[in-house]
Amino acid sequence: MRRLLLFAFLLAAACTTVAPPPSASLILVNGKVFTAGSARPWAEAVAIRGERIVAVGTSAEVRALAGPQTRVVDLNGRVVVPGINDAHVHEPFYIDGERVDLPPNASAEQILAGVADTAKRVPPGKWIRATYAFALTDDPHLTREALDAAAPAHPVILLNEGGHAFLFNTAALRAAGIGDRDPDPPGGRYGRRADGVLNGWAYETAIWVKRRAWLEAKPDDELLAHMRRFADEAVRYGITSVQSMPALGADRMERLTSRLDLPLRWRWMEFRMGTVEEHPRMPVKYILDGTPIERGAAMREPYADRPNERGYMDYTDAQIRRMVEIAARGEHPLLLHISGDLPAEKLFAEMNRVDTDWPARRVRIEHGDWIAPFLADVKRFGVIVVQNPSHMMIPDIVLARYGRPHREFQALRSLIDAGIPVALGSDGPINPWLNVMFATMHPLNPTEAITREQAVIAYTRGSAYAELEEKEKGTIEPGKLADLAVLSQDVFTVPAPELPKTESVMTIVGGRVVWEASARQR
After folding, report:
1. Domain that residue 181 falls in
2. I need a surface site. Which of 236, 268, 289, 374 has the fewest CB within 10 A?
3. pTM confidence score
């Protein structure tokens, strides 16, 4: 009887048909696939099923997963990279007002003339906005009084892409509810004349709080339209994820994102202004100092071009201590804008004081231009550094502020060689290939330049780690989300000046093609 049962069991097993695995929905073959993974950095082909990658290997291996409904794309040797994850983006919104049309790098005289011409054709009381080049930060012609003369009946605001210093005329100060002798707000300050009256310049939270109020007043539809335009531009570069610190409340941005089928993955982080969040619901970014552009980066030594200035701390020592204490017991990572070396020194002194598993807390430093002197602490605490190569595009200002190039300035290679997690973010022009060019050239500090492979890893795997998503994305590996980009040129071999011309010919987010150039565009 036992023999009969055994025979029946073996017969049934032999007759059982093992169902083949389901076929892939999308296959890319005959490419140069940079996986950004450590085990297998290069491959020829990728298979995707649904929203996940199911295979990476040779074209022959991957083609075996094709079925009747599979779309097979012959890459013809094109480069494929994991979707770019921009780890430092600010919201794609703009201050209201009539924009002054100016040539690139317009002089102060051209700006003032442009403001005057714009004032002649727009109704009195309408806001006018213009952008000034970083090099004009100290130009004596750009004053509150000069803007008053150019447009006495219009509120005028001059801004730059650095975002840490704006100039208001008198009408703009009045429209923004700022009095001539208002005290400095927490985390910010006003420029003043010798008699204490505001000179029109505003810094840090003195402008951000006003900007948040203006943006919060915008209707949802207008904000959504800006987000759509931003997303459409991003996917054309091969960007699939962005980590954004909006001037608006992050809660509202999350709600807006859920209303719109955007072709991007968004991670929102709260942007705290002048205060410490006691019970953070999400990661909170604190800006501890300014930037070298307006001499706001807080330094232990004086600026070379202004020996009486060392920058400004936006938070007190007690506030930094409280941030660290909350991060030590909280569930959300702490994000800190640190440009100068003084806030880094203060941060690590507090982290040394608090006993916790800091590497598990994933503390992030955004920028970290002078982080190199603290590499031992950065390594020991498992701190992630999010660097912005676009900041390397202002060598004249850096040389003026700091006197000469420094081997410790804007470390990249030293961080990677030390095994410190590095991510890249734009914090400026979102073209990632422009940022890759600067990261791999590092004009002011060539010894800190990194390879193109390292730059792409920082922009993908590193950025995923920075948002605690390394198990889901950042590399082209089976099981990961199918976020990747097929590029218009080989970013690993083209001459460096050609890198910014790179575009995506196919961007895939979660297995869905969200951007595809036409055959003619290719």
Report:
1. 98-214
2. 236
3. 0.92
For 382, list phi and psi in degrees, rounded to 5: 65, 30
The reply to whether 187 falls in a domain is yes
Interatomic CA distance for residues 46 and 478, integer angstroms: 9
Tens digits of per-residue pLDDT, 53-62?
Answer: 999 999 999 9
Q: Would residue 226 count as lying in a domain?
A: no
Helix axes 341-353, 317-329, angle to 10 degrees: 50
3-state secondary structure (DSSP) of residue 45: strand
Provide φ and ψ at 60, rounded to 5°: -65, -45
Kindly state the tokens that stand for 344: 């880094």
- What mean pLDDT, rounded, does the chain reach? 91
Q: What pLDDT was estimated at residue 97?
A: 85
- Residues 115-160 pLDDT 10s: 999 999 999 999 999 999 888 999 999 999 999 999 999 999 998 8
Neighbours of 76 (CB within 10 A): 9
Which helix (H) or strand (E) element contains residue 363? Answer: none
Number of structural domains (the chain) is: 1
Which runs of consecutive H residues, i.e. helices, occur in 139-219?
A: 144-150, 170-175, 205-216
| Alpha-carbon span 398 to 273, nearest angstrom | 26
Q: What is the CATH number of the domain that holds 118?
A: 3.10.310.70
Sheet holding 52-57, edge to edge: 52-57, 45-49, 26-29, 71-74
The pLDDT of residue 263 is above 60: yes
The model's pLDDT over 174-198, given as tens digits with 9 standing for 90+, comes to 999 999 999 999 999 999 999 999 9
* 227 in Cβ contact with 248 (< 8 Å): no
Alpha-carbon span 98 to 115, nearest angstrom? 10
**Extended beta strands in 456-503, E state:** 484-487
Residue with tokens 């017969």: 11
The stretch 457-465 carries a mean pLDDT of 98
What number of other Cβ atoms are within 10 A of residue 147's Cβ?
A: 29
